[in-house]
Amino acid sequence: MAKYIRKADIILIIILIIAGIAATVILSGAETSGDHVVVTVNGSRYGSYPLSEDKTIKLDTGNTVRIEGGKVYMKSSTCSGKDCIKRGKISHAPDSIICLPHKVVVEIKGKNNDYDTIAE
Ligand SMILES: [Zn+2]
Question: How far is the CA of 67 from the centre of ligand 1 (A)?
Fold first, then answer.
């Protein structure tokens, strides 16, 4: 049977496999690239903001969230430990910054999951 498989067939199969892998990588890449930021305070949604617009969000908890250049980070916080600030900048879904003492969660969401924008 093996002699009926031509070199061209093998090349075709390899091309199809590579194309399949490339498509998977591209699709998963599109899913994980962050689109917007959802801020949750004490279990309830505070707001949703596009990653594409630079913005500073001051929370009543003493946390300041900063969106800059497509990334988000905790600019300042009055919490102890400051683990949320040490988390650094994040830009891909489903990464998140959590300030445990203040019950603040900053989550990166992809394009297709629960987008909404609050009126200022
Ligand atoms: Zn914190």
Answer: 17
